[in-house]
């Protein structure tokens, strides 16, 4: 009987420790709402054919160019 009481005390103690650890533990930071990383489309320069990310290419007359110079020179 003595051991049973001791066993219950240990179990209750462990539960309390576990509970306090859960409360103390910092919740994991929520992943920031980042835009999903979509592979950027590569577009060939209309002048030299070098592939440029669509966000970095220079547009002229509806055609992508790798640089302002090539946009000026045209295709
Ligand atoms: Zn070019």
Question: Describe it for me?
Answer:
The protein is of the alpha+beta class and 75 residues long. It is 39% helix and 16% strand. It has two helices and four strands, in the order αββββα. The chain has helices at 2-24, 68-73; strands spanning 42-44, 51-53, 58-60, 63-65. Strands 1-2 form a two-stranded antiparallel ribbon. The chain has a two-stranded antiparallel ribbon with strand order 3-4. β1 (42-44) and β2 form a beta hairpin. Residues 45, 47-48, 50, 65-67, 70 line the site of zinc ion (ZN).
Shape: rod-shaped
Mean pLDDT: 87
Distance between the termini: 94 Å
Poorly predicted residue ranges? none
Strand order of the largest sheet: 1-2
- In angstroms, what is the radius of gyration? 32 Å
Question: Major β-sheet, in short?
Answer: 2 strands, antiparallel
Residues in β-strands, percent: 15-25%
Helix content class = 25-40%
User: What is the H-and-E element order?
Assistant: HEEEEH
Ligand inventory reads:
zinc ion
Number of strands: 4
Number of helices: 2
* Class from secondary-structure proportions: alpha+beta
Keywords summarizing the entry:
single chain, 75 residues, 39% helix, rod-shaped, binds zinc ion
Topology at a glance:
Elements: H1 2-24, E1 42-44, E2 51-53, E3 58-60, E4 63-65, H2 68-73
Antiparallel strand pairs: 1-2, 3-4
């Amino acid at each position: 009987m003595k051991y049973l009481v001791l066993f219950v005390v240990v179990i209750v103690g462990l539960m309390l420790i576990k509970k306090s650890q859960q409360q103390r533990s910092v919740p994991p930071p929520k992943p920031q709402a980042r835009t999903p990383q979509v592979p950027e489309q590569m577009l060939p320069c209309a002048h030299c054919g070098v592939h440029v990310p669509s966000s970095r290419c220079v547009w002229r007359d509806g055609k992508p160019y790798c640089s302002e110079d090539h946009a000026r020179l045209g295709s």
